[in-house]
Design a protein that fits this description.
The complex is a heterotrimer of chains A (759), B (289) and C (158). Chain A has 759 residues and is α+β, with helices and mostly antiparallel strands. Chain A has 21 helices and 30 strands. The chains are: A alpha+beta (759), B alpha+beta (289), C alpha+beta (158). At the A-C interface, helix 1, helix 4 and helix 18 of A face helix 1, helix 2, helix 3, helix 4 and helix 5 of C.
C-alpha cells in the first residue's frame, strides 16, 4: 500500500464490522425477512408485451378468489403532477416515476407493472395473477438505441420532445429525450495537429447490477393517515420522498425503516414495490409485504444502458493526445434518464486533452427504465476511450501505461465539464500500476495476453446526518441515516472513534428510520464513507467541545484551558496539588451522569463536491482458440482511496468492482427477441461470474489524501468498475490479435472472429 | 408454484397407479432440480408430484462384473460420482455426474431425471448413449427396456407412455480395452447449460479401434448418436486423421439452433472440437493413462 | 386450496414439527412456517445458492426441495452453524477477513463451506472455488470469501 504521511490510531486498521455477527449467523433482517402480525402478501401483474395500449383491466375473477383482499391499478395512484423529484444519482419526472410504478394508458416494456394484488398468503397472491385479465392493443417496439433515434422509429411517448443543446425543445415527437454537449478548445484544429487519428465504434448491451437480494417493500397505512414503510433501499430518505410524492402525502406522514440491504449498486434507489404495498395496505387496513422474483428483478427493475459510442482520438508522434471526440448514445429504457451525462463527464477526464468535443444522447427504448449502476455511464465510456488509447499505444509503439502517464490529467488540468482538476492521485495510480509486481512480471505462454486500462470517477458529496450519545461505560452510540450496503457502519464508526481517540469497538453504529435522524442522501455515488464519515467527524468534534466543557466544569477551570488530545485524553492546567489534570474519555464518560448528565453530539454536512478518483487495472487472460473461452489468469486493481479508512473493505470494493466489470466484459447482457421479450431473465443464463471464473484479485491502494475531507477520504466504491471492460478487451486483443469493440466478448463472439467465415 | 399434491409411494406398483390415475398432471419427482422449477414457473401443468425416492430400486447403485451397472433413476449425481465401481469402470459417467449443475445440484439431481427431462443439452445423456445404457421402465403394462438413444423424442419429451416411469438405468460391463469420456463447453466455469457437449467410447483390439460410439448434445432436438463418427473410427488405429474424420461427422450431424446459449456457427464448431477432445480422453482411458 | 400437512424433521438438532402447504418449497417452509429467516431467497431456481442448507449431510438448494420431501430428514441451516457460546471458525474467518459486504449471500456460503470442511479438512483454493461455484456473490469478487474458507480450514486443523 502506498501510504499517506498522517498517522492515525483507528483509521487504516481493520476492525471487525459491528453488524458482522448478525450477518454470519443469519440473524440480520433484510426486507423479505420482515414479519408483521396479520400481514398480507402482494404481487404485481406485469405486461407480457414490450409496447402496447392497455384497453381493459378486469380483476373481478381475482377478487373472487378466496384469500384475495385487494387489487390496485394506476387509477389508484394520485394523478401525478408534472414536476421533477430529485432522487439518487439523478432526478426523475414525477409523472414518469408514477407511470413506471404502474402503467397507465400504455405499457412500455415487458414486465411493466399493470396491477397489484394482495392475499392472505403468497401462493394465493400468485394464483390471483393469472385471474387478472388485461386486454392489450400491441404497438410496434423499438429496442436498439440507434434504431430508436431514427425519424421513422415507433414513438414511446407522444409528448416527448428532444431537449437540445442550449435547452430548446424540438418540435416533433422523438425518442431522443435530450442531446447534451461538452466542449473544450477546438477539436477540428486539434485533429489537424495530430500525427495519428484513430476513430472506432463501440456497442454494449444493457446489463444488470445483479444484486443477490430481490427488491422488496412492505407498508402499513395506519388509520391515522401515517404510512409506515419497510424496505431494502440504498436511501431511506430518498425512498420516503419518492413515496410521498407518488402518493401525494407530506413527507412527515411517511416513515421509512430501512431493512438490511442485500446489494444494490445503484439499482435500489428508485422505488418499485413500496407505493404499491402502501396502496394495497390502505385498501385492506393491513400490512402488506411484497418481494420480487428474480425474473421480475431482471425484467422490471433498472439495469444500466445499452450504448452506441464513437470515439476519435488524435495524438502526436510522441504520444501527446491533442484532440478527442466522443459520440455517446445511451438507452434510457422506457423513460428518459440514462447516465449519458455522467459518461460525458468521465469519458476523457483522466487525461489532459486540450481539445474535446463530447455529444451525448439520452434515448428511450422499449426496455426497463435504467437505474444507476456503479459509476453510472463511466464503464462503457471508458471501454470506448481506453480501447482507442490502447490502439494508439500499439500504433505508436509505446507502452500503454507510458502513453497514459504522458497524458495524465494533473492538478489544474481543465476538464470538458468546465471544472478544473484539484489534488488528484492520477499519476500516482498509473505509476503504482506500472511499478506493480504484476505489470513487471513477464507473461508467458501461447494464447495469452495482458491488458491494462485506466478509469476516472467523480464521486459525490451531499447530505449526511448523524448523532451520537456518550454512554457512562465509555462507549458511544452512533445513529446513522445511511443504509449499510457493504461495511459503512464500521467505516463511519471508525472516523468517529478516530475523532474521539477511542477504539472502533467502543462505537456502536446503528442505522435508523427517517424519523430518527436527519436527512441523509443515498448510499451511492461512493459518498457514504466520505460524507457519512465527515458527519461522524463533526459529531465527534461536537462531543469533544461538550466534553471539554464538562471537564472544565469538573475541574473548575475555563474550557479554553482544557485540551482534547487525539489519544482521547483531556488535559487541563495543574490542580492544587501541582499535578497536571488529565482524564480519559472513558473516565470522563463515567462521571457524566453525576456532573450534569449525558452528552449528545449531532451534525449534518452537505459537501457539494467530493474527491474524484482514478483506477488502473491490469489483467492477464488465456483464450482457448478452439472454444473461444477466456480464462482470467491474473488480475490487479490499483486505485486512489484518498485515505483508506478500513483497508479490507476498500480492497473488497476494488475486487467486487473488478469482478462485475469482468462479467460485463465477458458474458453479461440482456438478450431480447425481436418483440422485446427478455430471453435470459435468470442467473443461469445471465451468467455473472462464479468463484470458478475469477482468480484472487490483487489490490494496490494508493493514498493521495483528499484535501476536501477531514480524513482525506475519497469515494472508493464506483471507480473499480470503470477500467475492467477495456482492460479485458485489451488483454483479449493481446492474446488473439483481434480488437473486440462490442460487448460482451463471449465465447460465441470470439469464435465468430477467430473462425474462418462459413466455418 | 402451482397448486399441487405430493405423494411418496413405497412400491413401483403404487407409483404406477398414482401416475396412471394422475394422468398428464402427475409428474415423477426425483431430484427435483428441473421439475420443481417447471412447476414453479407454471411451464407445465403439474398437479401431483410422485416422489420415487422411497423406492429402493430407484435409489440403489449396484455393480456386477457380469451384469454391469444398474443405477436407480433417482440416485443423486454425487452418489454416482463417488461410487467405487462407477469410478473404476465408468469414469465417463463420473464426468457427467460431476458436471451437472453445481455441488448443491448434484446433491439432488439424478442421471435418470436428466434423461427424463430430455433437454437437448443434458450433460448425462451423451455419456449414457455411448455407454450403451438401457432405460428400465415400469408401467401399467409391466416392465420394458429401451436403449437410451431412443428415449428422448424431442426437446422436453420422451418415449414414456402414460403411467410409465423410469425406474433404473442399466449399463453393460465395460470391455477391458475400452475407454469413454465426456466433454462439454460452457461459457462460465460452472452453473451453465452446455452450449454443446460430446461423449465417446472406444474399444480397441490389437491397436485398432474395434468398436466406437460417439454422441453429441445441444446441437439437435435430442442428444444424437453419431453413427458416421463411429464408422470413421472403426477398423483403423486411432490417429489424427480418423479423429478428424469422426469430428467432421459429428459436425455434419449437428443441426443446432441459434439461441441465447450459443450460435449455430459456435455449436457446429464445438460439436467437432468436443468430439475430438472426448475421443482423445477416451483413448487415454482405454490405455489406462 | 388443500389443507396444510404436518411435517416432522430434525432442524438444527431439534426435532421439529411444522405445518406446510404441499406446494411449499423447503425454503418457503423454513422461512415462513418455521421462522428461520437466515436462509435467503436470491433466485428461487437453484442458480444462486443463497438458500443453501445441509439436508441429510449434503448441501442442497432449499428452493429445489419440496417441503413434504424432508419428512424424517435432518437439516442444518445457517442458524445451526454456531454453538450457543461460540461462532463456527468459518463464521469467525468471514468476520476477520471481511468476507462479506452486503451479507445476503453469506449464510449460503457459510453453510456450503461448512459442508466442504466437514469432508475435506485441507481443501486447495481450486477445491474451494469449485465447491462454492454454485453460490453467487456480487459484492466481493469471491477473493476474501475463498481466503476466509482457506483460513478457517487452517484454523480448524490447528
Amino acid at each position: 500500500m502506498v501510504t499517506a504521511d498522517k498517522k492515525h490510531r483507528v483509521v487504516g486498521t481493520r476492525p471487525i464490522r459491528h453488524d458482522g455477527t448478525d450477518k454470519v449467523t443469519g440473524r440480520a433482517a433484510y426486507g423479505a425477512d420482515l414479519r408483521l402480525p396479520d400481514m398480507l402478501i402482494g404481487r404485481v401483474k406485469r405486461s407480457p408485451l414490450a409496447h402496447a395500449r392497455i384497453k381493459r383491466i378486469d380483476a373481478s375473477k381475482a377478487l373472487a378468489l378466496p384469500g384475495v383482499q385487494a387489487v390496485i391499478t394506476s387509477a389508484d395512484l394520485p394523478n401525478p403532477a408534472d414536476r421533477v423529484v430529485p432522487f439518487g444519482e439523478g432526478s426523475s419526472d414525477l409523472k414518469d416515476l408514477a407511470r413506471n410504478v404502474l402503467a397507465a394508458d400504455k405499457v412500455l416494456y415487458e414486465g411493466h407493472a399493470v396491477a397489484a394484488v394482495c392475499a392472505t398468503d403468497a401462493h394465493i397472491a400468485e394464483d390471483a395473477l393469472d385471474l387478472i385479465e388485461v386486454e392489450y392493443e400491441p404497438l410496434p417496439v423499438v429496442l436498439d438505441v440507434r434504431e430508436a433515434m431514427l425519424p421513422a422509429a415507433p414513438i414511446l411517448h407522444d409528448g416527448l420532445r428532444t431537449k437540445e443543446v442550449g435547452g430548446e425543445k424540438g418540435d416533433q415527437p422523438s425518442n431522443v429525450a435530450s442531446h447534451l454537449q461538452l466542449k473544450l478548445g477546438d477539436t477540428e484544429a486539434g485533429f489537424r495537429e495530430a500525427d495519428l487519428v484513430i476513430e472506432r465504434e463501440f456497442e454494449t448491451k444493457m446489463v444488470h447490477q445483479g444484486y443477490v437480494e430481490p427488491q422488496n417493500g412492505a407498508a402499513f397505512w395506519n388509520r391515522d393517515g401515517r404510512l409506515e414503510i419497510w424496505t431494502s433501499t440504498q436511501g431511506s430518505f430518498v425512498a420516503r420522498d419518492q413515496i410521498a410524492a407518488l402518493l401525494d402525502l407530506p413527507v412527515s406522514k411517511v416513515r421509512v425503516t430501512p431493512m438490511e440491504i442485500g446489494g444494490g449498486f445503484g439499482g435500489k434507489i428508485p422505488v418499485y414495490l413500496e407505493p404499491l404495498a402502501a396502496l394495497l395496505s390502505r385498501k385492506t387496513g393491513k400490512p402488506v409485504k411484497m418481494t420480487m422474483t428474480r425474473d421480475e428483478v431482471f425484467r422490471a427493475t433498472g439495469p444500466t444502458s445499452g450504448t452506441y459510442i464513437r470515439v476519435k482520438i488524435g495524438a502526436k508522434q510522441d504520444g501527446a493526445i491533442v484532440a478527442a471526440q466522443a459520440y455517446l448514445a445511451f438507452e434510457a429504457g422506457a423513460f428518459p434518464g440514462s447516465p449519458v451525462w455522467a459518461a460525458s463527464r468521465c469519458v476523457f477526464t483522466a487525461y489532459d486533452v486540450p481539445h474535446q468535443l463530447i455529444d451525448g444522447y439520452d434515448v428511450v427504448v422499449n426496455k426497463p427504465k435504467v437505474a444507476a449502476y456503479r459509476a453510472p455511464g463511466a464503464p462503457t465510456a471508458a471501454f470506448a476511450a481506453e480501447s482507442v488509447i490502447d490502439e494508439l499505444a500499439q500504433r505508436l509503439e509505446m507502452d500503454p501505461l507510458d502513453l497514459r502517464i504522458k497524458n495524465a490529467a494533473k492538478q489544474g488540468s481543465r476538464r470538458a465539464d468546465g471544472a478544473t482538476h484539484g489534488v488528484i492521485g492520477n499519476d500516482e495510480v498509473l505509476l503504482a500500476a506500472q511499478d506493480s509486481p504484476h505489470y513487471r512480471s513477464e507473461l508467458q505462454g501461447e494464447n495469452r495476453g495482458r491488458g491494462v486500462a485506466h478509469g476516472f470517477w467523480f464521486n459525490i458529496g451531499l447530505e449526511s446526518s448523524a448523532s451520537a450519545s456518550v454512554n457512562a461505560d465509555g462507549t458511544v452510540s452512533l445513529v446513522l441515516g445511511s443504509t449499510d450496503i457493504g461495511g459503512t457502519r464500521v467505516s463511519i464508526a471508525m472516523q468517529l472513534a478516530e475523532t474521539l481517540g477511542i477504539a472502533a469497538e467502543d462505537v456502536a453504529p446503528q442505522v435508523v428510520d427517517t424519523d430518527s435522524v436527519g436527512f441523509t442522501f443515498v448510499t451511492g455515488g461512493s459518498r457514504t464513507a466520505f460524507a457519512g464519515g465527515w458527519a461522524a467527524y463533526e459529531v465527534g468534534m461536537d462531543l469533544r467541545r461538550q466534553l471539554i466543557e464538562r471537564a472544565a466544569k469538573i475541574w473548575e477551570v475555563q474550557p479554553e484551558q482544557v485540551e482534547y488530545a487525539d489519544d482521547g485524553v483531556l488535559r487541563g492546567p495543574p490542580g492544587d496539588d501541582g499535578a497536571p489534570r488529565a482524564i480519559t474519555f472513558r473516565d470522563l464518560a463515567a462521571k457524566l451522569p453525576k456532573t450534569g448528565g449525558m452528552v449528545v453530539g449531532r451534525a449534518d454536512v452537505n459537501p457539494k463536491t467530493s474527491g474524484p478518483t482514478f483506477a488502473t487495472h491490469i489483467v492477464d487472460v488465456e483464450v482457448d482458440p478452439d472454444t473461444g473461452k477466456v480464462q482470467i489468469l491474473r488480475y490487479t486493481a490499483v486505485q486512489d482511496a484518498g485515505t483508506a479508512i478500513h483497508p479490507a473493505y476498500v480492497e473488497g470494493q476494488m475486487q467486487g468492482g473488478a469482478a462485475q466489470g469482468v462479467g460485463w466484459a465477458l458474458n453479461e447482457e440482456y438478450r431480447y427477441d425481436d418483440q422485446g421479450r427478455m430471453e435470459n431473465p435468470t442467473f443461469l443464463d445471465y451468467r455473472m461470474p462464479t468463484a470458478l471464473d475469477l482468480p484472487m484479485i490483487e489490490t494496490i491502494i494508493v493514498e493521495v489524501p483528499n484535501p476536501g475531507h477531514p480524513y482525506g477520504v475519497r469515494g472508493v466504491g464506483e471507480v473499480p468498475i470503470v477500467p475492467p471492460l477495456a482492460a479485458v478487451a485489451a488483454a483479449i486483443h493481446d492474446a488473439t490479435g483481434v480488437r473486440f469493440n462490442t460487448l460482451p466478448i463471449s465465447p460465441a463472439a470470439i469464435l465468430d472472429k477467430l473462425l474462418p467465415d462459413g466455418d | 408454484m402451482q397448486a399441487l399434491r405430493y405423494a411418496r409411494p413405497s412400491s413401483v406398483e403404487e407409483a404406477v397407479a398414482l401416475l396412471e390415475q394422475g394422468g398428464s398432471g402427475a409428474r415423477v419427482l426425483a431430484g427435483g432440480t428441473d421439475v420443481i422449477v417447471q412447476a414453479r414457473e407454471r411451464r407445465r401443468d403439474i398437479n401431483l408430484f410422485v416422489d420415487i425416492k422411497a423406492l429402493p430400486e430407484a435409489m440403489s447403485i449396484t455393480y456386477d462384473p457380469d451384469q454391469g451397472l444398474t443405477i436407480g433413476a433417482a440416485a443423486p449425481c454425487y452418489q454416482i460420482a463417488r461410487h467405487e465401481a462407477v469410478r473404476s469402470h465408468y469414469p465417463c459417467l463420473v464426468d457427467s455426474a460431476s458436471l451437472i449443475g453445481g455441488i448443491a445440484i448434484q446433491g439432488r439431481a439424478s442421471l435418470g431425471g436428466n434423461l427424463c427431462n430430455a433437454s437437448p443439452a443434458a450433460d448425462g445423456i451423451p455419456s449414457l448413449i455411448v455407454l450403451a445404457a438401457e432405460a428400465g421402465i415400469a408401467g401399467p403394462g409391466g416392465r420394458r427396456t429401451l436403449p437410451v438413444e431412443d428415449f428422448c423424442t424431442g426437446p422436453g419429451t420422451n418415449a414414456l407412455a402414460p403411467g410409465e416411469f423410469l425406474v433404473s438405468l442399466r449399463l453393460p460391463p465395460p470391455h477391458p480395452d475400452s475407454g469413454a469420456a465426456f466433454q462439454r463447453f460452457i461459457p462460465r466455469g460452472e452453473m451453465d447449460i452446455a452450449v454443446a457437449n460430446a461423449a465417446s467410447q472406444l474399444r480397441f483390439d490389437d491397436g485398432r479401434v474395434r468398436w466406437a460410439r460417439v454422441a453429441i448434445g445441444a446441437v439437435a432436438p435430442t442428444p444424437l448418436l453419431v453413427a458416421d463418427a463411429a464408422q470413421a473410427l472403426v477398423g483403423d488405429p486411432l490417429s489424427d486423421v480418423t479423429i478428424a474424420a469422426a469430428a467432421a461427422a459429428a459436425r455434419a450431424d449437428a443441426r443446432p439452433i441459434e439461441d441465447m446459449r450459443g450460435s449455430i456457427k459456435q455449436r457446429k464448431h464445438l460439436a467437432a472440437v468436443l468430439t475430438e477432445r472426448s475421443l482423445r480422453a477416451a483413448a487415454d482411458r482405454a490405455r489406462g493413462v | 386450496m388443500t389443507d396444510p400437512i404436518v411435517i416432522g424433521a430434525t432442524i438444527n438438532g431439534e426435532a421439529t414439527q411444522f405445518l406446510a402447504s404441499e406446494r411449499d418449497s423447503l425454503l418457503e417452509a423454513l422461512r415462513d412456517r418455521v421462522g428461520l429467516i437466515g436462509t435467503k431467497e436470491g433466485c428461487n431456481n437453484g442458480n444462486c445458492g443463497a438458500c443453501t442448507v445441509i439436508l441429510d449431510g449434503r448441501i442442497v438448494c432449499s428452493c429445489l426441495v419440496m417441503a413434504p420431501e424432508v419428512a424424517g430428514s435432518t437439516i442444518t441451516t445457517i442458524e445451526g452453524i454456531a454453538t450457543a457460546d461460540a461462532l463456527h471458525p468459518i463464521q469467525q474467518a468471514f468476520l476477520q477477513d471481511a468476507a462479506l459486504q452486503c451479507g445476503i449471500c453469506t449464510p449460503g456460503f457459510i453453510v456450503a463451506a461448512k459442508a466442504l470442511l466437514d469432508q475435506n479438512s485441507a481443501p486447495t483454493e481450486d477445491d474451494v472455488r469449485l465447491w462454492l461455484a454454485g453460490n453467487l456473490c456480487r459484492c466481493t469478487g469471491y477473493d476474501k470469501i475463498v481466503q476466509a474458507v482457506l483460513h478457517a480450514a487452517a484454523n480448524m486443523r490447528g
